[in-house]
Structure formats: structure tokens, C-alpha cells
Amino acid sequence: MSFREAIIAAFELLATLDPQVFSAAAVSLRVAIVATILATVLGVPIGFCVALRQFPGRRAVEVGLKTLTALPTVVVGLLTYMLVSRRGPLGVLGLLYTQWAMIVGETILVTPLLAALTVAVVGGADPRIEDTALTLGASRMGAALTVLSEVRPGLVAVVVAGFGRLISELGVALMVGGNIAGSTRSMTTAIALETSKGEFALAFALGLLLLTVALAVNVLVAALTPAR
Question: Could you give the CA distance from residue 174 to residue 109 in angstroms, rounded to a whole number?
Fold first, then answer.
């Protein structure tokens, strides 16, 4: 199949709502959304505290978070596999080769990224915001919420960056998901599989859909984020 033929066939698969394409898309979206939510709940508060509070070892924590953002996905996949395999600490839950195993791995992967980006966003805010709030009688929590309100657009961008990292993730999904059709086969694992089989039309269709999802997310964020 030529390049031109593959592209035409890819658009035909998208136009006819091919079940293989949209099943993989549904898995990718479900896993990425849940993992992004969990990573946000874990990573953003960590980054917020590191940025606003002075404590012994703070610099080391920042360096550690930045280092963890560069973890190869296969290393995170290996760690997750060890956690959820039969002999691992979470083995009794039977998570291996399920979407939940993928979610656990992708949450581990992106939490340090969200924490490090949150440190950068909050650290870049005017320090007088918190001081002014405290001077006006706000509690520490109230002052922190004031800072949170001021940097909200930046934090939205942080969360979107995390989602973008996960929607295109391959290593973790392949290692702990198993690429099971109709269950754990995501867009990225399906692209890898179909390319290895020479099924370029399906691979192109999934790639186009992946790009469309990424574009739609960024357009939505641009619409929801006020201009500064």
C-alpha cells in the first residue's frame, strides 16, 4: 500500500467510525483522563507547598521533582509492573493487564511533572500576593487560596500539559496493559502494533485521531483561559 493509499484508507476508517479506531480512542481517553485527575490531586498540592513554604531540604526536593520528570516511560512501566504483578504489593488486586494498571503507571509517570510545573507557576507569581493577603488578616490557608486564584490560568496549562503527556504515552501502557483488543489497547499501542503488521491505514487513522484530540484539548483550554 502506497503512502497516498494509506492516507485515503485512514480517512475512510475515520469517516465510517471504524470500531477498532474508536475503541482504542476510548481506552486512551479514559485512562488519560483518570490518570490526569489523580496526578493533579497528588502533584499540584505537592508543587504548591514546595513553592510557597520554606523548609530544610527544599532545594533538594525541587531537584528531585525535576529529575523525576525525565524518567523514561519504560522505567515507570517496569516499576508499575513490579507493583501490580502477582508477587508485587498490589498483586492481590489483580490489576495487571487492566486499564487500572495503566492508570496507576501513568499517574506515577506524570505526578512529578505536574508537581514540578506547579512549582514553576506558583514560584513565578508575585510574592506580594500572599504577603498582602496575610496583612489583610487572611489565614495561611486563605492566603494560599488567594495565590491559587491568581495563578489559576497557569495551573490549567499545567494540567493540560499532564494530559498531553499521557494521551501520547506508550511504554507504560504497553508493559502493564498488554495491548488487549477491546480492553487495554490504546491509540499509541495500536499504532505500534498495526505498524509492525504493515497495516498503515489503521495506524494513520489512529495517528490522525490522536492529533485531533490534542488539538481539541488545546483549543478548549485557550477558550476557557482568559487573556492576560
Answer: 14
User: What are the pLDDT digits (tens) for 122-139?
Assistant: 877 666 666 676 676 666
User: Does 205 reside within a domain?
Assistant: no
CATH code for the domain of 50: 1.10.3720.10
44-53, 191-200, 210-219, range with the lowest pLDDT: 210-219
Position 96 in a domain: yes
Task: Outline where 124-186 has alpha helix (H).
Answer: 128-135, 140-150, 152-167, 171-177
Tell me how far CA of residue 19 lies from CA of 25, 62, 142, 173, in angstroms: 10, 44, 49, 20
Give yes or no for a contact between 153 and 228, defined as CB atoms under 8 angstroms apart.
yes
Residue 53 lies in a domain: yes
Q: How far is CA 42 from the centre of its chain?
A: 13
Structural domain that includes position 177: 24-200
Residue with more model confidence, 40 or 17: 40
